[in-house]
Amino acid sequence: MAQKLNNFDMVIFGATGDLAMRKLLPCLYQAHAAGLLHPQGRILGVSRSQLNTSDFLAKVEKDSKIHIKQHFTDELWQSFIQRIQYLTVDVNTPEHFQTLRQTVQSRSQTDNVIIYLSTAPKFFAPACKNLAEVGLNADNVRIVLEKPLGTDLPSSQQINADVAQYFKEEQIYRIDHYLGKESLQNVLPLRFGNVFFEPIWNKDFVKSVQITIAEQLGVEERGEFYDITGALRDMVQNHIIQMLCFVAMEQPKSLSADDVRDEKLKVVAALKPMTSADVDKNVVRAQYVAHESQKGYLQENNVPANSRTETYVAIRAEIDTPRWQGVPFYLRTGKRLAARSAEIVLNFKEQENGLFGNHANRLVISLQPDETVSAKMFVKQVGNGLNVQAAEMVLDMGKTSNERRAEAYELLLREVIDGRLSLFNRRDELEKAWEWVMPILENWANSPIAPHTYAASSWGPKAAQDLLAQDGNVWLEEQI
Ligand code: NAP
What we know:
Elements: E1 8-13, H1 18-33, E2 42-47, H2 53-63, H3 74-81, E3 84-88, H4 94-104, E4 112-117, H5 124-133, E5 141-145, H6 153-164, E6 172-174, H7 182-185, H8 187-192, E7 206-214, H9 223-227, H10 230-248, H11 257-270, H12 276-282, E8 283-289, E9 312-317, E10 329-334, E11 341-352, E12 358-368, E13 372-380, E14 388-396, H13 408-418, H14 427-446, E15 452-455, H15 462-469
Parallel strand pairs: 1-2, 1-4, 2-3, 4-5, 5-6, 7-10, 8-15
Antiparallel strand pairs: 7-11, 8-9, 9-10, 11-12, 12-13, 13-14
Helix pairs in contact: 1-13, 6-14, 10-11, 10-14, 11-14
Bound molecules: NADP nicotinamide-adenine-dinucleotide phosphate.
């Protein structure tokens, strides 16, 4: 049965910006090309610049089209850009919002209006206030908030409180693009839709869990942004904690947005809080330093020479629930590491039955660069006798279906159009995550201890290896 497509108006604030050009418009094109957008669905690009629609389309032609890497035809492109209009709307100019309202209300056939705030968060409050003043916060309006949603707990609470003055929680879609990744979503059916995993997915069988997001790139031209952000805010508070929730949560009552988000919230709330002394013991921060032809962080453009911002962080966390009592969760992320990857690793306890020696199974769920699930097993060596050797059983997610696999942003944009909230963060989850990282931020702000260092293109500082060594563990790349 063909899926019902919702008619929509999508108003993109920040339409001239980098995110809109590189991601939002190309992803909407892909949805259009696949026939997944309602034929009358409209895209209203808005920003401060004084442009008309044809100026804007010329910019889209120049800055956005180049980011469409597949399924491009001139015919589809021409039909796609028919959907696009441009309006000048300065978030601080109430009169501009009257014009926006008139444009949105110029047709009656809209199932929903989506307001995508792809701007710096300081514009969220005036934008929401001005939208509400012209009635663009009615029940059929959904508002999408781009990250970063705050830089600490108080600023995150402030943003949420500002938006909540004008929009109900069920109208708010907080973006974390990791939730748009098929291979992260796949953790739920893998765990709760198969008989294999759930019985062993707990402290009795799992020795430790590792969650890694590794980037090969350095800060490139984003030194100024990165230096006030750092790895903890950029990656851990959001993406890594979301990955952790999928691995650690209990089975939700249903797949409804609130049932899923209730279970995720319980995981974040059960993360053991850290004192400052715990931070010294369980958290490693580091900066990359020059190696061979690669610059160190402090030599990057727009980075102060005395910066203490971390480009790497590793954390030993624990989750205080009956399922996970005592199991270390090692979380790490960094720039200029040896490889690009995002993965979840479950290291199982050694199997001690005496017949085949003491071997430990391992499950690796890889989100990037490949989307695979690999189980390390022990199998018979070829030849006489019954000696065993390690082997990997690999499920390549790319081969499970011939369907086109959409990029995370496209999938999330379609979820907003369809009004499904489960892949978006609820306010309480987000604020709990901030609550948990706050002692780390506070410790670092006051600590006399400088960040550790690691050579560019290595796997991070020695201190991160020591963090695991104290439990008798090693990171995935050092495992045999
Ligand atoms: P950007 O390139 O700096 O663009 C900012 C946009 O905001 C421009 O369209 C600008 O319009 C608009 N703007 C500025 N002041 C305005 C005002 N007073 N009224 C209306 N519009 C105004 O930023 P970006 O990289 O696209 O990022 C947008 C948001 O997404 C940021 O919060 C960023 O942190 C987040 N984000 C970005 C990326 C990314 O890859 N770029 C990834 C994740 C999250 P004018 O050009 O007309 O001035």
